[in-house]
Specification:
With 314 residues, the chain is an alpha/beta fold. It has two domains: 238 residues, Ribonuclease Z/Hydroxyacylglutathione hydrolase-like (Metallo-beta-lactamase, Chain A), CATH 3.60.15.10; 74 residues. The protein contains ten helices and twelve strands. Helix 7 runs antiparallel to helix 8 and helix 8 crosses helix 10. The longest helix is centred in the C-terminal third of the chain and has 24 residues. It is globular and about 60 Å long. This is MBL fold metallo-hydrolase.
Length: 314
């Protein structure tokens, strides 16, 4: 065990960036609970579209939650991890299958760290993330994405499970198909901190492309029933359960508006143009992502209508 820890520390040391710039740091949000913000990672260089990284530290080990958007950002995570704690990481967990949270995984794996995900998440990454990587290279350039590869993620198994970090037992919550298939969160009851991954976004319009709408609503409802003091979202600052309620309200208001327009006979282009929710217009991504969400929900409502029409007796 000591030899394995020594190898990890040596590998991590070799990966520490040497550029003379202000390093990205894990900042405490509660005793033993930390956040390396997306903004701090992006400040180190492209990709600009990246997600928050969490860290929970016990007496014997640490857990990393999400990994950054590139190999270079994964190296930044490793360097920040060494500065934040002397405890060896037990493993890293990818919370959901979006590029800004998983493309740093290869750097962690090369340093000897296991990276796990829900089996549905791992399967989706294997099926489609080469396309995501090719797109990122085209967007940010080969230099920014150098050494980045699609990680092979270990399956953590389905269902809720616990991890003992030594005097700190954390809970991995299986939200099922919510924001993406195999969405998970990590709840630290000791501090009341929930790392919600892609299931919670703060001040940002959610993306419904890969979501199960009802599953997402159910996941937010489950979170609201937990004894949570603070939520670390996949994007945005640390928030309270009020932000969870706001995200749920957006989804429900979106659904109600799309169904109203569909029932009135509006076409898909008309619904996309008319389904405005001004209460959320200041959220990041509203002009583009909200229109996309209207598109996805309209098609879902239309399919539901067609299926109902084709059911005998209805």
């Amino acid at each position: 065990m000591r030899a394995a820890i020594g190898r990890w520390l040596l590998a991590a040391a070799l990966l520490v960036p040497t550029a003379a710039r202000c390093a990205a740091e894990f900042e405490p949000v509660a005793p033993g609970a930390y956040l390396l913000s997306a903004e701090a990672l992006a400040a180190q260089g492209a990709p600009a579209e990246t997600g928050n990284v969490g860290l929970l530290v016990g007496d014997a080990a640490a857990l990393v939650i999400d990994t950054g958007a590139s190999y270079r950002q994964g190296r930044e995570v490793l360097a920040a991890l060494r500065r934040a704690t002397g405890q060896p990481p037990r493993l890293a967990l990818v919370s959901h299958a979006l590029p800004e949270f998983l493309f740093g995984a290869a750097a962690l794996q090369d340093a000897g760290l296991r990276v796990v995900a829900h089996p549905d998440c791992a399967r989706l990454v294997a099926q489609r993330c080469q396309i995501c990587l090719d797109r990122a290279i085209g967007l940010y350039g080969a230099e920014a994405m150098a050494q980045t590869r699609v990680p092979v993620l270990e399956s953590s198994g389905a269902g809720d499970w616990q991890l003992d970090l030594g005097g700190r037992r954390v809970e991995v919550l299986d939200f099922g198909w919510a924001s993406t298939p195999g969405s998970v969160g990590v709840f630290d009851r000791a501090s009341g901190t929930l790392y919600a991954g892609g299931v919670v976004l703060a001040g940002r319009v959610p993306m419904l492309r890969d979501a199960d709408f009802d599953g997402w609503i159910a996941a937010l409802g489950r979170i609201a029933r937990l004894p949570v003091q603070r939520v670390v979202p996949g994007h945005g600052p640390v928030v309270t359960l009020d932000a969870v309620a706001q995200l749920r309200a957006y989804l429900l208001e979106l659904e109600a508006e799309v169904r109203r327009l569909y029932a009135s006979g509006a076409s898909l282009p008309e619904a996309v143009a008319e389904a405005r929710l001004p209460a959320y217009a200041a959220w990041v991504g509203y002009p583009e992502l909200h229109r996309q969400n209207v598109h996805y929900r309209y098609l879902a409502v239309e399919r539901e209508d067609f299926d109902a029409a084709g059911t005998p007796g209805r």
